[in-house]
Amino acid sequence: MPPCLWGRNRSLLNEQDNQVYLSLTLPWSSQRQVSYSMQHDSNGRMNQTATLYNRPSDKTSWSLGVGQQRDDSQEGMLLNGNIQTITPYGQGNANLSMLSQQYKNLGLSWYGSFTATRYGAAFHQNMAEKRAATDDRYRGCGGSAC
User: Fold this and answer.
1) Domains in the chain: how many in total?
2) CA-wise closest residue to 90 among 133, 57, 123
3) What biological-process GO terms show up in the record (predicted)?
4) Using CA atoms, how far apart are residues 41 and 93, in angstroms rounded to an integer?
């Protein structure tokens, strides 16, 4: 991926703001890459982050980033991470973001389905194809889900 470098000058409410942004991504292997991004403006704000992305399998990926954020009066270390996985029971995601002395954020999500019948119950992937549910209506109730 080629490096990205851009700058801009904008004026808002009689305040001038000049910004520069740099992004660089390097493949580490067929499943990994390392990236660096930096943003700096004329008001003294700066944010820079180095991130490792990894995809150990077709069903799992994760990233871990560390960086620094600075403005006029404060400076802090930034840590963020994310993991996503697909299982027979659904898709899960967990993410963490922390900026020292300012905030900590943890997010968890699950995308899947739960079906219960008189024969049992199970978690499973969502049935994304609407046609499957529609076809059962016209065929009658011959399957094991009835």
Assistant:
1) 1
2) 123
3) pilus assembly
4) 33
